[in-house]
Amino acid sequence: MNNLNTENKDYTLKEWLKIWYEVYKLPTVRAGTSARNKSTIDLICSTSYADCKVSEMTEIHLQSILNTLKNAKNGKEEYSESSLKKVKSVLMQSFQKAKAEKIVAYNPAVDILIPKAPKKKVLPLTHFQEEKLQLACQYDDFGHIYLFFLLTGLRLAELTNLKKSDYDPTENKIYIRNSKTPAGIRYVYLVAEAKKIIEDELKKPSRDDYIFHNSVGTPLSFNNVCNITRRLRNATNISQLSPHVCRHTFVTRLCEKGVSAKAIAQIIGHAGTGYVLDIYAQLEQKELRRAIYALDEKDQHSVTLTFPDSLYNKLIIKASEQHISIDEFIFSAIEKNAL
After folding, report:
1. pTM (two decimals)
2. Domain 13-100 is of which CATH architecture?
3. Which residues on adjacent β-strands are paired with residue 73?
4. Could you tell me the fold of the domain covering 127-282?
5. What's the chain's Rg over C-alpha atoms?
6. What residue spans define the domains of the chain?
7. Under 8 Å CB-to-CB from 309, ≥6 apart: which residues?
8. What DSSP designation does 22 have?
9. Distance between the two ends of the chain, CA-based, in angstroms?
């Protein structure tokens, strides 16, 4: 929209959010951020308040939007706290501009509250899931993008903004110059497989300085990655798959190898070690039961078994039905050749 006519005070919420997005956000933020803003706007416009007049909306209307969305996902699952915070941010910013344009007398979003909602819990891929993903990537034309996420722990925007000049083949590293935080500006060293992915990309003809491209030869975008994600989710049946899950998996694998929290934080571009220590804590919980068996004189617990999540969950249910521990159930079943 090139011409903004604010003499018309009868914008609906849907109309004003479209204007705000095209005039104020789209030209001023990175592609990934603008795409997330657009998704949040679509979410707001999915409510019954989309056709309300902006000039007539009050705090209670905007609070009701948040309350409605809290229980709207798939008709049964709650949106996370982070999703609701994004909604509030868009409402805050868009109504602040509406106030500046004298479309509203005040900003009704200032004091709206985030409803109590679950915090989004990002879980790493299990080793079994990671193997499934690696296999699926071999059969997808853009599967190497997800392999690169797994091998480097990069954020989505960090990967899509990589340029040829950021790659140092002599020292096998890439320079992350475009990150969400100052700590994110860093060098990331590449394992052999990650280096090969970049070398293969550089062999492809391109008209710009970016490393990764889509099927028509333009720089890889947020939407392109969303399409790759959707295909790989379908191929692997891993519904939670995302670049951020790959980043979490990358950190988890480093933790499993005993890499220090400080080193990992520097590798992934975090200012502090809290994020890494949380993952260490999760891993430690899994190791507690195994560690205590070092005190057990019986040697049956020295065996380490790994199961797919779906099977492990079924085994837990069966063990609970028999009122015994999961370990006792598994080893008993092995002894009876019943597993």
Report:
1. 0.63
2. Orthogonal Bundle (1.10)
3. 77
4. hpI Integrase; Chain A (1.10.443)
5. 25
6. 13-100, 127-282, 296-335
7. 126, 128, 129
8. I
9. 64
